[in-house]
Amino acid sequence: MPKIAKDNSYQTVITTFEMTPGTAQDLMDALNDAYAAFISKQPGFIAAGLHINDAQTRIANYSQWERREDFLAMLRTDEMRARNRAINELCKTFEPVMYDVVECFD
């Protein structure tokens, strides 16, 4: 489970996907498989969460990595490049963005 804290040294990545309700479940299945079979086993992976909106037109993914380089190395693997090409076919757009945690409120 991701731990959000202002003083952590982790790399936070939030990826948003835009799709149609007709491809939402296929995309979620592809993302679940990517995390279960590959991403979660990569060096530096800490945790992730997948979220879908009620209209099934957007998926948000929150992931944490030990270092920025760990996330980038995972993206550059042949397997993830192939998976991202397949994921791209299921959605209109997707964009991973690296963030720093500025503040947390409980």
TrEMBL record:
Coiled coil feature spans: none
One term of GO molecular function: monooxygenase activity
Oxidoreductase is among the record's keywords: yes
Source species, domain of life: Bacteria
Keywords, comma-separated and alphabetical: Monooxygenase, Oxidoreductase
Residues of the ABM domain: 11-102
Keyword field contains Oxidoreductase: yes
Pfam families: ABM
Higher taxonomy: Bacteria, Pseudomonadati, Pseudomonadota, Alphaproteobacteria, Rhodobacterales
PROSITE patterns noted in UniProt: ABM (PS51725)
InterPro entries: ABM_dom, Dimeric_a/b-barrel
Name by which UniProt lists this protein: Antibiotic biosynthesis monooxygenase
